[in-house]
Amino acid sequence: MRMLAIDLAKQSFHVHGISADGEIISRRVGRQGLPSLIVKLAPAVIAMEACATAHYWGRLFMAAGHEVRLINPHFVKPFVRGSKNDAVDAEAIFDAASRPTMRFVPVKTEEQQDLQSRHRVRDRLVVQRTSLINHLRGLLAEYGLIYPKGAALLLSRVRGGLAEARVSAMARETFEALLDELESLEGRIERLDDRLIAICREDETCRRLMTLPGVGPIVATALAASIGDPRQFQSGREMAAWIGLVPRQYSTGGKSRLGGVGRRANHYLRRQLVHGARAVALRLKTKTDPRSRWFQAVIDRRGFNKGIVAMANKTVRIAWAMLTRQEDYARA
User: Fold this and answer.
1) Last residue of some domain: 154, 174, 202?
2) How far, rounded to the nearest angstrom, does the alpha carbon of residue 269 sit from its chain's CA centroid?
3) Pairing label, strands 24-30, 12-18
4) 327 phi and psi, to 5 degrees?
5) How much is the pTM?
6) How many domains is the chain built from?
7) Opening angle at CA 124, ends 196 and 217, nearest 5
8) How far apart, in whole angstroms, are the C-alpha atoms of residue 186 and residue 153?
């Protein structure tokens, strides 16, 4: 069998393929029976949507000698015919994977998955911390306790303010519990950051990326986890477009129309790159090197925020060149 498409789920899967005799194979199979069915059918190519558990199954099938093609679910949807069900979805995956111009998602290694999982946990903790800080500020404001913006010194300021504030014992107990929760979150985030820093010291790719301005341990490990082999992209521009650091395009009739940055993006990675670019930009205002002059010219033409995105785009393109050539960053 040349190719088999699998509609993934947790326990019940549906496979679709065409045998060497031209017979259409479309059947449902359980989780335990899937590996044995793959051995029996022996497809050269296995196609799946790049969804939950796809990378696990991809690694499993690649280890058995199969070629694995993961497809963005958005690219599969146009091939769905009729009402949606597992059989129709599996057939749509088969049709999409058969297209000669289809773009596929590389299967993540276990090391990439480990690193990305750590980033996902860190991102969740940061969101929880922000939510808790806003919640705490709102409650404190009801007692006339207002504090400056910024999370860095909030914990110590609130503890010091509560010691002198005229609030009831119940309110004080409530605020102390929230402060303890915030302190615990801060500690967990700090421990994760320390581990990412340690990974950067050990990993050659991360060390190389950190020679680039605007790339610290968070951005370096996020890039390493998300991208893997940079040679999957034909150019730095293609990698920047994949991350989502390019404008939306709606062109027709020979007229090019560009909008803001698109929604199709690796949002976490794009956000971290923009944060890094903003940190670099604040130090470039008084410099006169070529990079600083270029950035100032972009700001003058397009404004500060678009200049920041342009800086993040340039950072990604330089990072692609560094990784593909195995070179450290060389200042102009």
Assistant:
1) 202
2) 5
3) antiparallel
4) -125, 150
5) 0.87
6) 3
7) 20
8) 12
